[in-house]
Specification:
alpha/beta, 16 helices, about 25% helix
Length: about 750
């Protein structure tokens, strides 16, 4: 288990913030305080709200139960914060027995893009290449140019909490699919030195992979979350004050959303504002009392357009009778999803065969040794500039920080010469002599990127393979096309979750650059650069050592196979991270992939031979790209059950929910493999490369080439493409041709 953190839990009253809080506790963390932002009263908002009191007085709150001015209750329809039912929030301190701190919301959504950068607040222009970073509103609708974004209301709230609780070092939020919310909380948390926790991030796509599973998990833990607002054509007032974690209500919502949403868009969870909830009870391990709101104290407010919400006139806390608390655990997603569990079973159940042949059991041949070539300087193309920057040591006493500073200055000079910004850098590869230099280099490197969404990055160390006077090399790929508001998008998750490792350094999981359109291209095509992926358990940020997970404990049951099994799990876990990023970025195909392996001499414990590790990785890569058989597709179609009620009542109507949010990789529908020989498997070229050491002492790091989004992909034979390690001749290697122009 990861080290215990002292968590400030942001709560809105909604189901997601409380369920995330329960996951914080289950992961061994201590919740020291609750934080909430609420709408300032109209008079205070006009004059500029004064700081809120430290926290409501517990004794007074217990006596009156409801001190808030319900007559002034309003729904701000905030981009960032839920405000319906906010007058009930003070009762959570008594109900949970955890100190509550509140702060009025100041400002509005000044930055409206999905990503958020504090340095951009109040600016009226966007840095070139920033893509999905929001443009600050100009002087529109009477808003002053320097108006503060509502996100910044979190800062004084958290500073007050941290002053009262100096040990606080983490911040919990209930973001599920909203990049808008997550990036804003992350921005504030990291500025204040808090570790962001978003345990529900991408939760619906994790095993078992159904949208409704999150509500089912809330039901299983005993969460009582009442619907207090509906704002969707599929939901009417009859849903108000229903428990969203009730089985019957869940199914009603699911049926309604099928007519108005896309399967996978989070509508059944209210992610698009379809509905909002107010938690009134939960497991006794957290809720010492339940919140009661009588029917006479609930008033429906209709806003038009099918939107309606409940105004709470009065509420009270009823403390639970003291009894033995039964700690019910929240379900957590399996470490390996079914696809990778099947690959693991295949690796364990048969000999590692050559991935070059379909149905062949030919063993892999010895890897082809490619000697390092002299370092190449800069190379240019119409769209991408590629630079290689080396930091030569002036003398034996020069520190790595000084060398890194010289390298960064050279990068700044190259950018200036090309009229580019650091935000135009797409990806980097950092090569160190020693991984012990990583922390010092990382600090200097990070200073180059002051805007959101830094480039993707791969980091390795190569030891004595580097020239004696060089301890640092940085390879860069930079976008050389004219910037546009939609030319660059990013995936930059800095919160701990069950999805994939958080980025705890100055790099993004992926950077997507849209290619310029041409007269002949019919579909916009984008190329995605992906960061190197190492096998960290996402919610703990630790490696899956044999003693740290139930999965490895159950698998390592045969003496003499522990090292091999541990390597397989690390290999598949990091490959799963890569796959989840490709799905999130809608990548249909990868151009190639390199798996870096640490030298056996760099570890203190015995490791598998490099050849054996290379065979395992090649087979895993091959199995990942195995096309589904016709029988598999027929079985999948047969599994879909008919809904006779829906067929009767919605016959002839448009069922928008029938459409699915396809995020499969590979997306075989757009991949043309007709140029390949019948015995050649259509998988991107793959290499293994042995280096000195990898970050965190990992056994493997997967580094994909570019990912292709949109358009079509033609996989063809190449006689000149350098052979992957598992090829017997260049003829068998696979090149990528993207017909965009």
């Amino acid at each position: 288990m990861a080290d215990s953190l002292h968590v400030i839990a942001l709560i809105s009253g909604g189901k997601d913030s409380f369920f995330s809080l329960l996951h914080c506790i289950q992961n061994g963390h201590q919740v020291v305080a609750l934080g909430n932002l609420f709408p300032a009263p109209p008079a205070a908002a006009a004059a500029g709200a004064a700081p809120a009191p430290r926290r409501p007085d517990a004794a007074t709150a217990a006596a009156s139960n409801h001190e808030a001015d319900s007559e002034n209750e309003q729904d701000l329809n905030s981009f960032m914060y839920q405000t319906v039912g906010y007058t009930v929030i003070p009762l959570y301190e008594q109900a949970l027995g955890i100190p509550l701190y509140r702060q009025p919301i100041v400002g509005s959504a000044v930055q409206t893009g999905t990503s958020y950068g504090y340095a951009d607040v109040g600016s009226t222009s966007r840095s070139e290449g920033s893509g999905d970073v929001g443009i600050a509103k100009k002087d529109l609708e009477g808003k002053h140019e320097e108006e503060e974004d509502e996100t910044e209301s979190l800062v004084p709230l958290l500073k007050r909490i941290m002053a009262e609780h100096p040990t606080a070092n983490a911040l919990s939020t209930g973001a599920i699919l909203s990049t808008y919310q997550r990036t804003r909380v992350e921005s504030v948390a990291i500025r204040l030195g808090l570790t962001p926790l978003s345990y529900l991030w991408q939760y619906p796509i994790l095993p078992p992979g159904t949208q409704i599973s999150l509500l089912g998990d809330m039901q299983a833990i005993g969460l009582d979350a009442r619907i207090v607002k509906v704002a969707s054509g599929g939901l009417d007032e009859s849903f108000l004050w229903q428990n969203v974690a009730d089985q019957q209500v869940m199914r009603r919502i699911e049926k309604s959303m099928k007519r108005f949403g896309t399967d996978g868009d989070g509508a059944v969870l209210g992610e698009g504002g379809e509905f909002e909830t107010l938690v009134v009870d939960g497991p006794a391990s957290l809720f010492k009392g339940r919140i009661v709101v009588e029917e006479k104290d609930r008033r429906v407010v209709r806003e038009g357009g099918g939107s309606a919400w409940l105004k709470i006139l009065e509420a009270r806390v009823v403390m639970k009778v003291s009894e033995e608390v039964v700690h019910t655990r929240c379900r957590t997603p399996e470490l390996l999803e079914s696809r990778f569990a099947s690959i693991l079973a295949s690796l364990n159940g048969k000999d590692v065969a050559s991935p070059n042949s379909r149905g062949s059991s030919t063993q892999l041949k010895s890897p082809i040794l490619h000697l390092p070539k002299p370092l190449v300087g800069n190379s240019n193309s119409n769209r991408i500039l590629r630079w290689t920057v080396t930091a030569k040591q002036a003398d034996a006493n020069e520190s790595i920080s000084t060398q890194a500073s010289k390298a960064i200055e050279e990068i700044r000079h190259l950018l200036h010469q090309s009229s580019l910004q650091p935000t135009d850098i797409i990806s980097t590869v950092i090569i160190l002599r020693s991984m012990q230099d990583f922390a010092s280099t990382n600090k200097v490197y990070g200073a180059l990127f002051t805007k959101p969404n830094p480039p993707s990055r791969v980091t390795i160390s190569c030891g004595t393979l580097l020239p004696e006077e060089i301890s640092l090399i940085i390879h860069l790929s930079t976008n050389n096309t004219p910037p546009s508001p939609t030319s660059r998008k990013a995936l930059h998750v800095q919160s701990r979750s069950y999805w994939a490792p958080a980025n705890i350094g100055p790099y993004s999981q992926a950077i997507c650059t849209t290619l310029p359109s041409t007269a002949t291209s019919q579909t916009p095509t984008s190329l995605v650069s992906i960061a190197g992926q190492i096998p960290l358990i996402p919610h703990t940020m630790n490696l899956p050592l044999s003693s740290s997970t139930h999965l490895t404990t159950s698998l390592l049951n045969q003496e003499g196979q522990e090292r091999e099994q541990e390597f397989k799990i690390q290999a598949l876990l990091s490959l799963q991270h890569l796959l989840r990023i490709t799905r999130e970025m809608h990548i249909s195909w990868l151009s190639s992939c390199v798996a870096y392996l640490p030298s056996s001499t760099s570890t203190s414990t015995p490791s598998l031979p490099s050849m054996q590790k290379s065979q395992i990785l090649a087979q895993a890569w091959s199995l990942l790209h195995q096309p589904p058989s016709q029988d598999d597709e027929e079985d999948f179609e047969g599994d879909e059950s008919r809904d006779l009620w829906e067929e009767k009542h919605y016959a002839g109507m448009e069922l928008r929910g029938a459409a699915k949010d396809e995020r499969e990789y590979p997306l075989w529908d757009v991949v043309d493999c007709s140029a390949l020989r019948d015995d050649t498997q259509a998988s991107p070229p793959f290499w293994t490369v042995e280096v000195e050491e990898l970050p965190r002492g990992s056994m493997v790091e997967w580094a994909a080439g570019v990912g292709v989004v949109g358009g079509s992909v033609k996989v063809c034979i190449s006689h000149t493409f350098p052979p992957p390690f598992h090829s017997s001749a260049p003829l068998n290697s696979i090149a990528l041709r993207i017909p965009t122009a």
